[in-house]
Write a structure and sequence with these properties.
Layout: H1 2-7, H2 21-44, H3 49-64, H4 68-80, H5 88-102, H6 109-115, H7 122-141, H8 147-157, H9 164-192, H10 196-203, H11 211-241, H12 245-258, H13 263-272
Helix pairs in contact: 3-4, 5-7, 7-8, 7-9, 8-9, 9-10, 9-11, 10-11, 11-12, 11-13, 12-13
Length: 273
């Protein structure tokens, strides 16, 4: 330090352990080992990028070849490791391919033969199949499909054995809607013709699920009550007042059958009895 102060020239620096070539090599080796471990873990290990993509690629290939036994084996192995979600996209895409064919004019029995093996993935495809059946039914209610087309699409998409009950329920809804449409058409025609009793009988068959027509049917029923029910109630009241209770009861029984919520008719009927 004295020498450095006398002539202003720094004194020679002593070598330290930090400058040791051995330490440098050790640090480089540690960095390389760590990088190698990270690359192996994130790329080449079973949870890594390449291995995962290799698994999903094999799974997709097995599905495209309709080799469901091989696909199920890959799925089971992934499931045991808790990583089956990595294959879900391929399975969903394959199921969607089948659904697309269900709406195609090219659908034949051979299509089902190629895709029926999807049954082995019941727990994973059950809900998507149910959702598709509901989707078809809803589209029919919106008027997107005819009854015949809707039934055809349902029978194809719901061909899996586990979907039989759901398929029956949706098919019944299609049938109910068909009956409902016919009832609304005929009921409206009877109302326009002044045949109120026939109109009421048909309009009450309109399904609540068909919200638009149901609302219209309820309005027509109110009109029938005004045009037919209330005048008949007045007639029954006159008959009862004149001592013709039996004749009044006959009219009132018809009214409470046609209009179950017609409280005035119900009250007068109880009075007559």
């Amino acid at each position: 330090m004295a020498q450095e102060r006398r002539n202003g020239t720094p004194a020679p620096r002593r070598a330290s352990k930090k400058d040791s070539p051995v330490l440098t090599v050790f640090l480089l080796a540690a960095i390389i080992l760590m990088a190698g471990f990270l690359i192996y873990f994130f790329v080449f290990s079973e949870n890594g990028f390449l291995y995962s993509h290799s698994r999903s690629g094999k799974f997709a290939a097995a599905l495209s070849e309709n080799n469901y036994q091989a696909a199920a084996t890959i799925w089971k192995e992934a499931e045991q490791k808790g990583i089956q979600d990595s294959l879900s996209d391929e399975l969903a895409a394959h199921l969607e391919q089948y659904f697309s064919l269900c709406f195609s004019a090219d659908y034949t029995s051979d299509v089902w033969t190629r895709y029926r093996g999807l049954e082995v993935f019941k727990s994973s495809i059950e809900q998507p199949v149910y959702d598709k059946l509901e989707e078809i039914t809803t589209a029919f209610y919106r008027g997107e499909y005819s009854a015949e087309d809707a039934k055809t699409y349902l029978s194809r998409a719901g061909r899996f054995s586990f979907a039989s009950e759901k398929l029956s329920g949706c098919a019944e809804e299609i049938e109910h809607k068909t009956v409902s449409d016919k009832a609304f058409t005929e009921g409206s025609a009877f109302y326009s013709a002044g045949e109120y009793t026939k109109a009421v009988e048909e309009l009450r068959k309109v399904s609540e699920k068909d919200t638009q027509k149901y609302a219209s049917a309820q309005e027509l029923l109110k009109n029938c009550l005004e045009a037919y029910g209330k005048p008949k109630l007045a007639q029954a009241q006159q008959l009862y007042d004149s001592g013709a209770a039996a004749a009044a009861i006959e009219i009132l029984e018809e009214l409470v059958t046609l209009f179950p919520d017609f409280a005035e008719a119900q009250a007068l009927l109880e009075q007559c009895r």
